[in-house]
Amino acid sequence: MAPAVNNKLTGLVAATFTPFTTQGEINLSEIGPYIDYLKEKQGVNSIFVNGTTGESMSLSVAERRDLAEEWCRKAKGKMDQVIVHVGCMSLKDSQELARHAAQIGADGIAVISPSFFKPSTADALRTFLHEVSSVAPNLPFFYYHIPSVTGVNILARDILEDVWELIPSFKGVKFSGSDLMDFGQCVSYCQTHWSVLYGVDEQLLAALVMGADGAVGSTYNYLGCHASELMSAFEKGNIVQARTIQFKMQELLSYAKKLGFDLGVNKQLMNELSGLCLGPPRLPVMQCPMSEALTIAKKYRSLFTEC
Amino acid sequence: MAPAVNNKLTGLVAATFTPFTTQGEINLSEIGPYIDYLKEKQGVNSIFVNGTTGESMSLSVAERRDLAEEWCRKAKGKMDQVIVHVGCMSLKDSQELARHAAQIGADGIAVISPSFFKPSTADALRTFLHEVSSVAPNLPFFYYHIPSVTGVNILARDILEDVWELIPSFKGVKFSGSDLMDFGQCVSYCQTHWSVLYGVDEQLLAALVMGADGAVGSTYNYLGCHASELMSAFEKGNIVQARTIQFKMQELLSYAKKLGFDLGVNKQLMNELSGLCLGPPRLPVMQCPMSEALTIAKKYRSLFTEC
Amino acid sequence: MAPAVNNKLTGLVAATFTPFTTQGEINLSEIGPYIDYLKEKQGVNSIFVNGTTGESMSLSVAERRDLAEEWCRKAKGKMDQVIVHVGCMSLKDSQELARHAAQIGADGIAVISPSFFKPSTADALRTFLHEVSSVAPNLPFFYYHIPSVTGVNILARDILEDVWELIPSFKGVKFSGSDLMDFGQCVSYCQTHWSVLYGVDEQLLAALVMGADGAVGSTYNYLGCHASELMSAFEKGNIVQARTIQFKMQELLSYAKKLGFDLGVNKQLMNELSGLCLGPPRLPVMQCPMSEALTIAKKYRSLFTEC
Amino acid sequence: MAPAVNNKLTGLVAATFTPFTTQGEINLSEIGPYIDYLKEKQGVNSIFVNGTTGESMSLSVAERRDLAEEWCRKAKGKMDQVIVHVGCMSLKDSQELARHAAQIGADGIAVISPSFFKPSTADALRTFLHEVSSVAPNLPFFYYHIPSVTGVNILARDILEDVWELIPSFKGVKFSGSDLMDFGQCVSYCQTHWSVLYGVDEQLLAALVMGADGAVGSTYNYLGCHASELMSAFEKGNIVQARTIQFKMQELLSYAKKLGFDLGVNKQLMNELSGLCLGPPRLPVMQCPMSEALTIAKKYRSLFTEC
Q1: Cytoplasm: is it a keyword of this entry (chains A, B, C, D) (predicted)?
Q2: Mean confidence (pLDDT) of chain C
Q3: Does the annotation mark C118 as catalytic?
Q4: Which residues does chain D have within 8 Å of residue C184's beta carbon, measured at their own beta carbons?
Q5: d(CA A184, CA A172)
Q6: Among A87, A172, C212, C274, which is most exposed with the fewest C-beta within 10 angstroms?
């Protein structure tokens, strides 16, 4: 992997699924093929591992370590950057994973807000983030903002306030929310070498126009090439083309949502579209009936050509 | 006013405040000057009256009739279009106002979802909207979508499904929400002579890139010329300039929100910036302390030149 | 009706449905039989009219006046008290209805919080309530607290603070919420001649043990005699018997909720159980399929003997 | 400890705080004195450890093991029952802790719903609970229901449906919610050797009248003797006395809530009232200013005599 400290993270980043065996144990052997698939079929050059899509909160700390290690090892020479999500409900666990990420040569770490006990103020959350970053002070640090999942309604912009003093390794935000005033204020405030990455795939174009540096999401696992096309159309000023692609992504995801789109369905859809064997999700996420994934895959194929 | 049936509503639309006397009665005499101010100072050519900004739900039906009539009368020859919001909790009241709007020559009517009893399905809301439209079948009809206020979480796109069969006078949506997948799906589905207007001013640019035909909002009462500049920069492909203006709007509104920005503050800010005498809001909206409006006005002046 | 000013409102109060014709117009002729049914079959001696169950927010002001007048006229000599709910989104409308209630000899008025514009503080809501009460200063005044419907999360106890200074005619609270700390604090703070009435029928027993003076609810339209039995069992210290009845009420309502229990279903169930012709609900509440009401009625009959 | 399998858990159960050193490490040495305090000063005979009050989600699995072990060891011969909460976001971690609880001689285990990934149906949650119970099949199993914290709005009653077939070791519910219809339906459905324990301390009396077998809560750490008095007054049929105590508890907790009552304040209040050294909370819960705890302690002393 490239020396991340000098490398601004941009473009498309796939939030990876965690491969499981059919018995529900983590399946490290599928990581190599997964990386090849992302690079070769989807044109994706950076990954965000052990995040929400990766079911990190359903993993033990030991499993997260093993997975992170394998992702970093197999990505070497293939991916530009591997960002390891180390957020946990417990500060202790996050710190352990942050230290570990530094040892295994991750390009950066990301931390979500704890959500069982919710920080009551921006200051509480900032202090939590600081405590994690401080055990891996040389690793680029990203704040992972996803209020609809955490229920923590603190503005991302309030986390950023003078954050370089608190977290000198700060490098950006993965912003998975629909409040684009907050998002715009983050873009406006950010230093040029930071990255503001957007995480609501179905409205990526809106974030691009607000100044997003890139995108991190689960659908880029199978919509990577199309999302890349959207991004380059936008960069070239071809709004109509970018919008057309975005609308197709929306049509797919609207369709899936009507059928009940959750992480279990998403994972099964990925299995179907990629040919990889990522297995079922882990409880409390339920495995979806194959028919449901097939129905969505059919819709996918009616909208998109193969990458 | 122009013959609206053939005229697609586009561009900037100000959602007007309702002028009150200091005693809290509606003040029709301020409507003429208000229209002149919007046209001359803000470059706004269409208005949306008796909506949320207009405190319609705090008005009696008789007051809404008087106001609508005066808005239409004074706008004649000055404004392109006057859209009268006729949505009420009671279908009966909405129908009365819709009939009245037809009589006074409004260019269109808009209807919000009832929100005390919330429609439980798209079908229930569609039937409600149909019943209102049917008493004024020749008036262009707009659905007013604002889920954060109504608490009605029905997708706008689901309202649009084959809506021309149900409401032949259907002409568009005022979409005041942050779900841009739903918004994009509305744009994608809409007929070309319909208007998809966006109503979250602080992220207007995001809606433009998704294909909005225009915008309806309260801040265009005092940010009209700047929002127009944003829109034309976007149309010319000057994203950076459009973004710069959007960020300044966001900075103003973020600042106001930290101080506690509600309709009472917004109205007082408008009084301060416009020089009009729109009076206090009506209960349960409380009048804001003058100092608060002045502080925000000062911020406004630090960010924007006068229109 | 008895001189309400000296009469504390206690016991069971039915929140009445509004009778409609099959064409959806208000049907005053059914009010007389409805009152006889409540008194003779259900043993209910007081009514709360034009409330949530009465679909007041779906009625015009004129309809509410006509209904209130007929309820008061027909209740004379039969009911102990008729409380007319006069709460509206618009203060003007509420004041008109409050004045009218005084003219027609209502025993009291009740006011809900406006919920389109939500009061931002207890003070804002208190001021609103004060403005309504002040036009009918001799009518006993009740605050109607139902946060799950209004979305106004102001503690009822905060409304009560020194309320006699603000509203000298204050007589009590209809508390339709599940926060029994707030409820208990209301009971604890209330003057002895005030009434604290509970409005979540399925957990009435919990409110009784906390000191409720009575209950107002829609299910007392058809569970009146059983709820009376529950209340007298509780008063006699027969907790086990009271609980047994409460559990049966819960079983009925849980069952109904699983099938989708809303006001439309509730009204149709009432039609089926009472034999009255109260008609369909008004939009946006949808009429329920007869089969659904019949299924619930069957459950009712399996649990309860006829009153 | 008594042989729990035959012992129904009833009465008052303290949800214990986790003792930390001032440096934020777990402090096992304070557990012995804590147990003595609970037994001698508060008259509490059972404890629920590593639950919400115990900040379990902020602990590592290793810390939770160490704590559980020490609680069980020190409680031997002093407490009737020690219930170890083993719920985690990760099924793997929960299973590890359940196995461990069996080894250390816990009297029972309790499991909360995972809340980062929320089970989408009762069936998903039931399957999760089953998977935990199955690794410690001889340990009495309690479902811990606290929807306001988890955001999982599945009825507890739906978890209970035929639960003995799924979890033969099932012994009851810790119900920390305000939906007393659901609570009542649990009581009504439960087998006689199961326990339905209530967890919203400020409305305990409401649960008792609905048939609660006991109570689990954090305030019983310092209100234990008073809550016991409430419970025995209720059992003797002295509702007025029980209500008087409940109202004092409500007055204290209302007062604390106005000041901003969270786990950090609660823990500091406990330090002040008990004289124990339980230390600060762990991030993201912030330590409260001493003055705030002292203010609440003063209120406590104005309402209650020392136990």
Answers
A1: yes
A2: 96
A3: no
A4: 202-203, 243, 246-247, 250
A5: 14
A6: C274
